[in-house]
Structure formats: C-alpha cells, structure tokens
C-alpha cells in the first residue's frame, strides 16, 4: 500500500516524475501525472529533487547549539583545542541527549538524512556520548540514519584505558573506531596504528583516523595506514579524515600516494576548510579513492562556526578546488549525496526504486543553481516521513 506520493518533481533537474514511497523506501518512479496513491499526495510543483545529503564526518556530541553563545577560548592548536574542550565541556553539559538532538534537527532542516558521526570516547565520559547520540537519534524516530565512530579525541596510547573503551564500543555496535594524529598526539604512530588495526580486524569494524599533520609527517602516516590496510585485508573499511598533507605534497608524491590509496581501498573525508590545500580530487576519483563531505564540529568548543548545512560544505569544496563547469559543479553535489552512500554502508542512495526514501526538494533550476545559491529546503522526506515542509521542521 502506497504511503506517500511526491508528485511532479525533477530528480537531478531532469523531466518531471512522480515518486512513489511505501514502508520507508522508494518503490517506483514514473512520469509525472501517471501514479496513483491510497495515501498522502504532495504536489512537488516541479521542484528540483535530490537524494538526502550524507554527512560523512560530523561530531554531533560536542555542540552547544541552542544554548547561549559560548565565546571561543583556549589555544588555536589541536592540542590546545583538546585541552580547552576537556576543561570546559562539563560546564556546558557536553555531551548530552538534548545537545545531540539539536544538531540532528539542524541536519534535517538542511536535508541531511544520514551521517557518520565521531563520538568522543575517553576516560572522562566513557561510552556515555555514544549512548546520548543514539538516544537523540531514536527520539527523532531515526529520521537521521546515524552511524557511530568511537573517537579517542584525547589520544590513544598516551591515555591508558582508551583502547579498552574503543574495544567495548566496537563490541557494542559502533560501526567504526577512530584514531587521531598518531605521530603528533600520541608521538608513537606505530603503536597507535597497530593497536587500532588489531581491534578493527578482530571486531570487524571500520577505522576512521583524523590526520591533521602536514607535509612529509602526514605522508609518512598515510604510508603506515596503507601498509596496515593491505596487510589486514581491510580494503573499503579505512578512512582518513581531513588529511591536509595530501594537498601540500609535490605532484609526483601525490600521484604515488593516490595510487597506493586506491590500491588499498582507503577513502577520504574532508570538510574543505578555507585555508587548506586543495586535494588532487580528479586523480582520487579516477583511482577509486572515495571522497565524502562533512560538517565537522558545529558551534562547539573547537570553533564557533557551522550550521549543519552540507550543501554549503559542497559549495566550499567547489570554491576551494576551483570547480567551474556544469559537470564539476554537479560532482560537488554528488559528493554530498550519492557518493556519500559508502560512508554509511548503503549500496545505493538516490531518487530511485530500492533506495531509502530520503528526498530533498529545492526551488532551483538545476543542481548547479542549487549548489551556488544553497536555497532553503522546501521539503525533506527522511525514511519515508515528511520531516521538513515549507522550510519548517516537523520533528
């Protein structure tokens, strides 16, 4: 029985169609005006239809969204941000169910219906942050499909007991475990990576490693990750997040590394920060190195920026990398939607039969127009349920 019909919409700016949805999935896409329904019918008014956005790198446990403004403080280094967050987070009730829920609601407002989120696991909070995020997602009816990366933000080897927490998280349902700057934070990259890969291989989970280190120090750690991925047979299960060094290397050095990353099946998650070096995205695409886009933290103790709009992140990626042609601009949208599917373990993600019914309607001429203007999301369907109508949240 049909539960929802999106009538007269234009997937990817193409000809108008009717999208038939039942039991949370798209079951048919037919020419506009030819579908019938026994459930709710929504007139799409010829609006542009895109798949729900996929946020491949988030930190939904950290935000003070919805609270009074929190001034930026502490030192502007990775270690400085860690120390500041550890000193201040309890004051602002971080992490909490309400805080995570506020971020997930902003994701929905902007059309994000799936996310891979890093959640801090450390000696201070244990696994409480993961419990809070899952409770927040459940309170929204799992409209945002959430995957958890148990993330050791305060280091691994330098904090005895964190490895045990990561192992517990993996045993209790986290789809990935994380790592952080094995060289500059733990100052023992071999020990950190060996320990993380041992858990990932034994627990059959993914591995997602934050790497901020630049230049040859960053490249050296890529090589260690590549070696271990191939040795453990974890192709398709390892992600480097940020990875700023890749854009800083010489062209020849980049090319060799991209070939090796492709061979090892390692993916890349980026938030396309404004002052970072552009990635060799064409070579990465050609060699099968998956790229995912993410928002990173949103209004947290690391940064006052962010609003949860992945479309704006896609625009930032396009501007950072000098994308100009229609095909290139469309590619930025694909990174934020269909290409993000693999980061949340989906075999398909689109406005097509068989996909989870995640559909975003925008008042835009085409995908290129949607990218450069980032108009409001007129309608968002998540898992077959209308969660945004006329730009307003309904959850």
UniProtKB/TrEMBL annotation:
Gene3D superfamilies: Metal-dependent hydrolases, Urease, subunit C, domain 1. GO terms for molecular function: hydrolase activity, acting on carbon-nitrogen (but not peptide) bonds, in cyclic amidines. Pfam families: Amidohydro_3 (PF07969). CDD domains: Bact_CD. It comes from the Bacteria. Residues 91-388 form the Amidohydrolase domain. This is Cytosine deaminase.
